[in-house]
Structures are given as C-alpha cells and as structure tokens.
Specification:
Elements lengths: L2 H9 L6 H16 L8 E7 L4 E8 L4 E6 L6 H20 L13 E6 L21 H24 L11 H7 L4 E3 L9 H9 L10 E3 L13 H12 L8 E4 L5 E6 L5 E6 L9 E5 L5 E6 L10 H10 L9 E10 L6 E13 L5 E7 L1 E3 L9
Helix pairs in contact: 2-4
Length: about 375
C-alpha cells in the first residue's frame, strides 16, 4: 500500500459528512501546496477511553495535532461544555500513548477548531437552526488558513528543535525499520492486514498465507516458507531475553474478541452471554479480555455448559483466577483481530505477551506478561 492510496482512503472516509469533508481536504491540500509532504494524515482517529469512544476529525501523529470541524450545533452552551470535557479526555489519553513519531509522549495534544458557521448571539438558543443559513465562507476559510499556518509552524519547531521527527510510514516493515528500538509495543501505531503479514514482519518468515491462529515459534522453522534466517531469529531472541533456551516456550496467537448477545430461557428471562464473533464450523472459541486488558479467558464453544459463558460468570472468573492458582505453561504473543481504522475489513494489532495456563473446567487463562516483544526478523533488526 503506497502513500497515494493511503491518502485517498483516509481523506474519503468523511465523504458523507459534507462540511467535515470540505475542511479536512482543504487543510491537507493547503499543506501540500506549502511543500509539506512528510506529515501523516489520519482522519477519524479513534481514541478509546475508559467509558466512551472519541474520534478526531483529522489527526497528525508526528505533531500530536488534531483538527476538529465544528458545525452549528457546537454553538450551544451545553455542547461547548461537552466539547471541553471531550478535549480534556483526549489530552489525557494522548499522554499515555507512545509512537515512533515523537520523542516526548507527554507533549500536549493541540486541538485546532475550524468553524463552518458564523456566531449569532441573537439566535443562540434556537436549536432548529439550519447550518446552511449560518455558513460564512470567509470565516471558514480564515479558520482553515489559520490551522494550516499553525501546523506548519509546529512542524518547523519540531524539526528545528530536539524532538524526534520521523516521516510517516505505510507498511509495518517501514514502521519498524524507522523505529529506533526494535520491539513491537501495544502502543505502536501499526496494524497487520493478515496473519501472514504479522508473522512475516515480526518473525522474518516468508508465508503467502496463514490460517492457523496459534503456533509455537519453533514450528515456523519450515521450508520453503518458514524462517528466512532461523539462526538470526534465535540470535535476536537471545539478544532481548539473555538466552534462547525459552524460545520454544513462545507461540503466536491471533484471536478475535467475542461479542455479547442476549438469550432467553423458558421463563423469558434474559441473560447476557459471550459468543464467537464470526461464524465457522470449526475452531469456535469464546475469547474475552478483562476490562484492563491484563487477562484473557478462552474456552471452546462446544464445551460451554449451563451458561458459563454469561457476562456475570466471566466477570467472576476474572476476579478469582490468576497467577496464584494457575500453572503457567508457555507464553503467548497475542495479536487481536480488529476492524482496520482506515481501510475497513479485518486487521490485527499487537495486544501484548501473555502467559498461558489452564484453570479447570476446560477454561484457558492468559495473563499479562509484557507490553512488548522483540522484532526477531533479521532484515528489520540486523545483528
């Protein structure tokens, strides 16, 4: 996937939002007109918080700058209060996020607002205002030009200062070649379109296609599509962990989080239960992450009895299960299956390394072990 396709896809995500689409495309094209081609645009940047989901209309990760298009409904006092609370939530969330583009993750998030309406205090309390009657071309153009100017100034400040500035990457391979520390982290801004791409990038294999979700690292040493440089892979493992004796204790895993549905019993009482998120005749598993992401419970659907996959029972299992009553067997390099934020369809994001154990009644428990794993691929992480 090259840059032109990325730009086309990411800027067209708002094509059903007339005013927002106009603003983000105007900002991007004016940056290009000013010779700025090294900034990565992300439209509808998803921000997950503890109790809500937020989307930034246009986000530049190298500068931690977000563009927000405000239509007429943002003019009410209630909405202004909600917007301010939302801004604070996003600011706090970005303090937690690391990426390859900036050295200081605590750098403040900057929100730039482009209004596509003109203020009218006499009509402020009218909730039925039509935005068409309140648009002001000159005012909106000034806001767009001001936002572009601030982005350019911030870019110059970063380039002339001590902060790290990395040109944006498209493929995972490019991403990790640019990254100084050759590890994959849960906070990395990178996803894999297929299981094969994830395995090839991190482990240095040469698969065209992979369907199997779980596989031990030592079992990737197959011909002709396995490790390109098995000794180099093990050397990188040893460099990170101190020795390669535990290499055989690690496996990859590419699951999808189960969804919640409501079922009724004979008395018409409703119960919320977890079910697999996709239909298949085989390999149907319940996979549930704890709220903090530190534990994962898994069980084959055909072994579920007496609604033990209910939300309440899963919650109880999370509370009583843990390292104190589990015998760890091996470690799992986990990639959760998600919907790609730009291109749609399935993709996979690194979720961390977990220890694996069985806790009785055919339940499998994976507990957090590390937020990162070394890039073993010698082509990306040369010895």
């Amino acid at each position: 996937m090259d840059k032109i396709n990325w730009i086309i896809k990411t800027l067209s995500r708002t094509n059903r939002k007339d005013y927002e689409n106009y603003v983000i495309n105007a900002v991007w094209n004016r940056l290009i007109a000013n010779g700025v081609t090294d900034l990565k645009p992300v439209s509808q940047q998803f921000i997950r918080t503890s109790n809500k989901r937020c989307f930034v209309d246009l986000y530049f990760p190298q500068l931690i700058i977000g563009i927000e298009c405000h239509e007429i409904y943002h003019d009410s006092e209630l909405q202004k209060q909600k917007d301010e609370e939302r801004k604070k939530i996003i600011e706090e969330k970005f303090k937690e996020i690391e990426n390859i583009y900036v050295a200081e993750v605590t750098k403040p998030y900057t929100e730039l607002i482009v209004k596509v309406y003109v203020d009218n205090d006499e009509d402020k309390n009218n909730d039925n205002r039509n935005i068409i009657n309140y648009c002001d071309y000159d005012k909106t153009e000034n806001d767009i030009n001001d936002a572009v100017k601030k982005i350019i100034e911030k870019r110059k400040e970063v380039l002339n200062g001590k902060e790290k500035f990395t040109e944006w990457c498209i493929t995972p391979e490019e991403f990790f070649k640019e990254k100084d520390e050759k590890v994959i982290s849960v906070n990395d801004d990178v996803t894999f379109r297929t299981i094969a791409q994830g395995v090839n990038t991190v482990l240095g294999t040469d698969f065209d296609n992979l369907q199997k979700c779980a596989r031990k690292l030592e079992n990737f040493n197959t011909k002709p599509k396995g490790y390109k440089d098995y000794e180099g892979v093990k050397a990188n493992f040893k460099k990170f962990y101190g020795d390669d004796e535990n290499f055989k204790e690690f496996e990859t895993w590419f699951p999808k989080h189960s969804k919640i549905v409501k079922i009724k019993d004979n008395d018409d009482n409703e119960t919320e239960v977890y079910v697999p998120s996709y239909n298949s005749e085989k390999n149907l598993y319940i996979n549930v992450w704890s709220k903090d992401g530190k534990k994962i419970l898994t069980k084959a659907k055909n072994k579920i009895k007496n609604n033990e996959n209910s939300v309440e029972n899963i919650k109880r299992l999370f509370e009583v299960s843990g390292s104190k009553n589990a015998q760890n067997e091996y470690k799992v390099i986990s990639f959760i299956r998600i919907s790609h934020p730009v291109f749609g369809g399935n993709s996979y994001k690194f979720a961390g390394v977990y220890t694996y154990s069985k806790i009785g009644d055919d339940w499998e428990l994976r507990e957090w072990y590390s937020d990162e794993f070394p890039i073993l691929n010698p082509e990306i992480n040369p010895l």
